[in-house]
Amino acid sequence: MKKLMKQLMVVSFFSVVFLLSTIIVIFTYILFEGPPEFETAENTVVYDQYDEVVSVNHGVESRYSVSLEDISPHVIDAFIAAEDQHFHEHYGFDFKRIVGAAYHNIMTQRRSQGASTITQQYARNVFLTHNRTWERKIQEALIALRLEVFQSKDEILEGYLNTIYFGHGQYGIEAASQFYFDKTASELTVAESALLASVPRGPSLYSPINNYERAVERQQWILSRMRDTGKIVNSEYRSALEESLAIVTTVDAQQEIGDYFLDYAMSEAANILDVTREELEAGGYQIHTTIDPGAQAILEEKSMERLPEDEEYQVGAVTLDHQTGQIVALHGGRNFHTTPYNRAVRAERMTGSAFKPFLYYAALVYGYTPSTTLESTFTQFTLEDGSIYDPSNYNNRYAERPVTLAQALAVSDNVYAVKTNMFMGPENLVEAAQLFGIEDNLEPRLPLALGTTSVSPFDMAKSYSLIANSGWQVEPYIIEKIVDRNGDTVYQHQAKTPERVLDENYSFVLKHMMTGMFDDRLSDYLRVTGASISHALEHEYAGKSGTTKNDAWMVGFSPNYTTAVWTGFDDHRLLETTQEKQAAKQIWGDYMSELHEGLTVETFKIPSGVTGVYVDPMTGALNGPACEDRSRLTYYIRGTEPTETCEEVEVE
């Protein structure tokens, strides 16, 4: 007997030593390993310039992370009641529940009850697979202990609620709340909280979309648990049972506006951060863009209203705030989901007469004034290679007399433009175009005056913004700032000091001449090119249209915004109908008119180096009795304004 007792004491001693050693080894391991580290995919959210959400980007998984303070307390109470009643008392394991579950499973001869705590579930969901092996169970226990040692209960609960799966690709309480109820997790009611708490037990089984009755049945059980544990009182319990729950699932609805804009913004953000698009979209970033959703919606609406019915006829358009450089709207095509190719930034198309402002800026510097006259008649030019070049005006109409620069620009006289290029020298036009940022495909030849080079709508808007901005160059941008998943700002746009590229006085004279396309007083042998849209324009605008056999352009600006619109076919087929040739101009006019509704009417600021006088646009002479009905205020570099009146200048 004594020998047996001695053996039992030895066994007990070594058992205690083994147990203590095991505990010491486990805690040494835990202290050595430290807190478990992980990083899960998380939704990247895109904001407009007013810090409102315009897009949520994710792959097959939709995830948000929110702090515990931003989660309704009803959610916390519901999950604790449903999953782990003693969460705040245990250290990762609820041994009483483990024993109870084991007894129940033995008695029923099946594994119908589990005893995983919230801490264990968190460890399994984030760090481990769901394979039921002893190895995974041991790993789960160790990670649960590490969580309990190094994190507070609130930190564990916050991590758990942000990572559990709610079905339909939704991870975390915020994603689930927005997906099922179109509201944030902080706004959830008792009934809604209990319904969502029912889903993680079996997302396919308890999804209110797939099995509404079964989900409600479990929700009611959770509500009863909340009542029994004192989380809600009887009146709250009854109200929750009676509450009507509307499942809306709107969070993954297709983006309504700005698909091309947002795709371009995401590409720019990925370049800034030097990550892939996939890494960006699942990186939990907050991307603040320059989009003005009102402007974007108007641009897309007016485009669709004016585009011909032919589905292959496309549009590319962009709007800049030329004073700040913000890209406020961008439209790259008829339908992003059909053709994601972004024509606003990628399509380079022949500009036609929209190129002429670059020519006439060079001409002003060369010595031209708005009153400089050249003969408008059918003219053949001999090119450098000896071939004959005979540009024509619209409908082969010519003034058959000298016309002024101001009028030639307003009615888009092609002969005047080519003559100017010839007299000034094509090399000067190339230099001027490069000054405006147009550098590719520039050959110093006479036809360049009529826009034989190809440019994207983005680059045309950028070039025209120099004129709009009194010669100052402000670099366009689309990303304001980027915040990472930890709340740290990892990128902030820093505006470069503006650089003066154009002379202030010459650029203003050109700018004011470009308002002439909307002024019928300049119409004569040809009508001003903006006459068809001028009736809708109540603010001051300047611009230039351009039409080739394959492309239609309208580029222009107000004191507030610069907008370029291109329309045509991707395969460069001919524009045949009037609508196909006029669509760009009509879109621009409708869009700019509505964009400026409610804005204070402003005029272009006049620099001190110019002077304005009333002149006859046909002769370029000062206003007099013989031309009072057609005189127009015109600006000149000081000292270059005309001195003769229209009576002294003969009009043939």
TrEMBL record:
GO CC terms, sorted: outer membrane-bounded periplasmic space; plasma membrane
UniProt xrefs under SUPFAM superfamilies: beta-lactamase/transpeptidase-like, Lysozyme-like
Penicillin-binding protein transpeptidase domain residues: 316-567
MF terms (GO), sorted A to Z: penicillin binding; peptidoglycan glycosyltransferase activity; serine-type D-Ala-D-Ala carboxypeptidase activity
Record's subcellular location: Cell membrane
Keywords: Carboxypeptidase, Cell membrane, Cell shape, Cell wall biogenesis/degradation, Glycosyltransferase, Hydrolase, Membrane, Multifunctional enzyme, Peptidoglycan synthesis, Protease, Transferase, Transmembrane, Transmembrane helix
Pfam families listed in its UniProt record: Transgly, Transpeptidase
Transmembrane segments: 12-32
Domain Glycosyl transferase family: 60-226
Reaction catalyzed: [GlcNAc-(1->4)-Mur2Ac(oyl-L-Ala-gamma-D-Glu-L-Lys-D-Ala-D-Ala)](n)-di-trans,octa-cis-undecaprenyl diphosphate + beta-D-GlcNAc-(1->4)-Mur2Ac(oyl-L-Ala-gamma-D-Glu-L-Lys-D-Ala-D-Ala)-di-trans,octa-cis-undecaprenyl diphosphate = [GlcNAc-(1->4)-Mur2Ac(oyl-L-Ala-gamma-D-Glu-L-Lys-D-Ala-D-Ala)](n+1)-di-trans,octa-cis-undecaprenyl diphosphate + di-trans,octa-cis-undecaprenyl diphosphate + H(+); Preferential cleavage: (Ac)2-L-Lys-D-Ala-|-D-Ala. Also transpeptidation of peptidyl-alanyl moieties that are N-acyl substituents of D-alanine
Predominant place of localization: membrane
GO biological process: cell wall organization; peptidoglycan biosynthetic process; proteolysis; regulation of cell shape
InterPro entries: Beta-lactam/transpept-like (IPR012338), Glyco_trans_51 (IPR001264), Glycosyltr_51/Transpeptidase (IPR050396), Lysozyme-like_dom_sf (IPR023346), PBP_transglycosylase (IPR036950), PCN-bd_Tpept (IPR001460)
NCBIfam families, per database record: PBP_1a_fam (TIGR02074)
Annotated family: In the N-terminal section; belongs to the glycosyltransferase 51 family. In the C-terminal section; belongs to the transpeptidase family.
Protein name (record): Penicillin-binding protein
Record organism: Alkalibacillus haloalkaliphilus
